[in-house]
Amino acid sequence: MAERFDVGVVGAGYVGLVTGACMAHIGHTVTCVDKNEGRIENLKRGKLPIYEPQLGEMIARNRKRIRFSTELHPLVREADIVFIAVDTPPGDDGAADLSNVAAVARGIGRSLSEVERERPLIVVNKSTVPVGSGDYVSMLIQEGAEEGPNGEVSYRVVSNPEFLREGSAVYDSLFPDRIVLGAEDREALHTMRELYRPIIEQSFATELDPRPTVAVPFVTTDLASAEMIKYAANAFLATKISFANEIANICERVGADVKSVTAGIGLDHRIGPRFLDAGIGWGGSCFPKDVRALMATAREHEYEPAILAAAVSVNERQRRLVITKLQRDLHTLKGKRVALLGLSFKPNTDDLREAPSLSIARILESRGARVVGYDPVAGKRAAALMPEMKVVFDPYEALKGANAAVLVTEWEELRNLDLERAATLMARPRLLVDGRNAIEPAAARAAGLIYQGFGRE
Ligand code: UDX
């Protein structure tokens, strides 16, 4: 029988809620704390602040083991383990802004100095923090404690980076490829292993099949290496995509098809087939931020990160390529109607952070095009962010009278667009720029559209 723990999660945002729901699902008792009262009230009523498939159901199903609160103090008194899962937005120089993490760490220190505990509190860093932050958090907890009545407090800091993807966060957290833990204290690592045991052994009850039958690898290391693993993983994946985009751009010039090329190289186990989809490039809340933060860290230490800089520059170029492709058949953009299909940075999320759709819409607007956007879930939010763009709630409405359409985000319903209907609704020259290589070129052409993909001319 696995041990049950009292788990606290500070930050009821994306990572915090998924972590909390997952911990409750595997049998622990969870308290999610957030300083935003409105958010906590909504959560108590079952209303989530984010869109994420299966998260609402998972919270509802484990509701008896999850509490929502705005108070940190009781959590520090009662919890065995506290996760810090607050956001670390990028500052002007690209480096992660740690002020939210710092405020929580100080708060934990202050509360610790006011309570009696039998065991040291394990404080787990789940937020993506720069390498070296584990020690910084530790120092801040101590500083916070010194402001309270009893400066002698006992705690252990652990780094536990998360690798979950938006849109499949619940699945990723229950069936991870690996669990990474960094700490200087062996006992804290042992407790964390017990906490994760149901996941490591895949022994929890679930209806979320298919589930892996093998045990989940568990990597233990020092604090700095655990922090670095998170950055290195995201930077590698972003670079892998930029590499595929570079190959696509070369394919286009030599008459090769990047889809066949990446399928061919992906079968080499050393390369692997995933994250080789060429197109508009990467966006979202993690890749852009983490790559920039890693570059900032490198430069702080007087190292010029050449490969990372190239990955970023290729990614920026991919967005501008959409404009070049549109101009090839539209000639001028002025007065042309362009439909953007899919606005969120990727399918199955309403997240618009660093979404290519927004920067493409801005360039198009600045060149005098009329932009109409459609997204199955992010439409309203996009309209609020970009009042210049007309947002409609039906893809065919967006296509009506459009001279060109850009498939920006490969939502399932957009992959399966009725191409003939699209061609009938659109105006000349009926150009489809497929930013995700998600549509069969032959089918698009047969329907009467001009088709342009990425790296598959
Ligand atoms: C990513 C990491 O995958 C995850 O491990 C980490 O915890 C957070 O960052 P996420 O940002 O949710 O997750 O999205 P992901 O599915 O990784 O896609 C990132 C971006 O890359 C998207 O804009 C996507 O459209 C793009 N992408 C992905 C490609 O352009 N080509 C690909 O082959 C794969």
From TrEMBL:
SMART domains attached to this UniProt entry: UDPG_MGDP_dh_C
Q: What class of enzyme is it?
A: oxidoreductase
Q: One Pfam family of this protein, by short name?
A: UDPG_MGDP_dh
Catalytic activity field: UDP-alpha-D-glucose + 2 NAD(+) + H2O = UDP-alpha-D-glucuronate + 2 NADH + 3 H(+)
E.C. number: 1.1.1.22
Family affiliation: Belongs to the UDP-glucose/GDP-mannose dehydrogenase family.
Q: What protein am I looking at?
A: UDP-glucose 6-dehydrogenase
Organism, per UniProt? Rubrobacter taiwanensis
